[in-house]
Amino acid sequence: MEKTILQQITERPMTTQQVTPDIFLLQFPLVNAFMVGDPNNQNKEWVLIGAGMAHTSKDIFQAAEGRFGQGSQPKAIILTHGHFDHVGAITELTNTWNVPVYAHAYELPYLTGQMDYPPADPSVDKGLIARISPTFPHKGINLGTRAAPLPADGSVPWMPGWQWIHTPGHSPGHVSLFRDSDRVLIVGDAFTTLKQESATSVLTREKEVHGPPAYFTTDWQAAEQSVQVLNELNPSLVIPSHGLPMGGEELKQQLSELAHNFVHLAVPEQGQYVGQPAPNS
């Protein structure tokens, strides 16, 4: 029997890609995670950005040992936000590594058992991923004292030269990470380089700048402002949580177009939060 598109996506194994000398991409079926740190440095210090989906901890452990050596563990885990596809393996990872997890202060209630995210809204798009999004977990998790706020000065723990930028809209405490020296942007879900609502786009991974995943975005005005802020940074390379890395003139043109025509290009024609943000957004 021929496999459905969704089966082809979910059964696809993790792949990896060295994006820069110190950024290593872990690409899971629906989301990316990243290891930041140069394995050629003597101290081999590194951090993990994002914790993938459920049942991906084994892949992450193996990738860490393959890149940084047996018994290697990160100094910290950094979360752009706490949606299910970014924290799926975090309990197994933190239980083994016993490292802190940093996120924006506005995101901590969802990481310490105090709040749940609003459920996904399938009405925003007719794509298959959007249609099945009500099955995606939206409950908060409880990391207890392991969860800590990112430093108020904008620095990123164990990532010298990087700064975090508050980019709300997709979630209240969403952040993106930017390194000014080479203008690399780890964008999280503030925007994507594929159409995350579409199973076909997720399967083919054809590069094209799109807005944040619509089914979980709860404040579209804030999301628009966040894209405009990121466009002003003039990044040379973006590394998204959904899609492939993208740079050059292709990125510059498409990101500028999204920033200047966000309502037309990204905001759904209908949806629970199109006219009014969710409470606590």
Can you characterise this structure?
Helix content is about 25%, strand content about 15%. With about 280 residues, it is of the alpha/beta class. The chain has helices spanning about 5-10, 55-70, 85, 90-95, 110, 130, 200-205, 220-230, 250-260, 260-265; strands spanning about 15-20, 25, 30-35, 45-50, 75-80, 100-105, 145-150, 160-165, 175-180, 185-190, 235-240, 245. The protein starts with a helix and ends in a 16-residue tail after the last helix. The chain has one domain (about 5-265): Metallo-beta-lactamase, Chain A (4-Layer Sandwich), CATH 3.60.15.
List low-pLDDT spans: none
Instruction: Report the mean per-residue pLDDT as an integer.
Output: 95
Spatial order of strands in the largest sheet: 1-2-3-4-5-6-7
Q: Which structural class best describes the helix and strand composition? A: alpha/beta
Which terms would index this structure?
about 280 residues, alpha/beta, Metallo-beta-lactamase, Chain A, seven-stranded mixed sheet, about 15% strand, globular
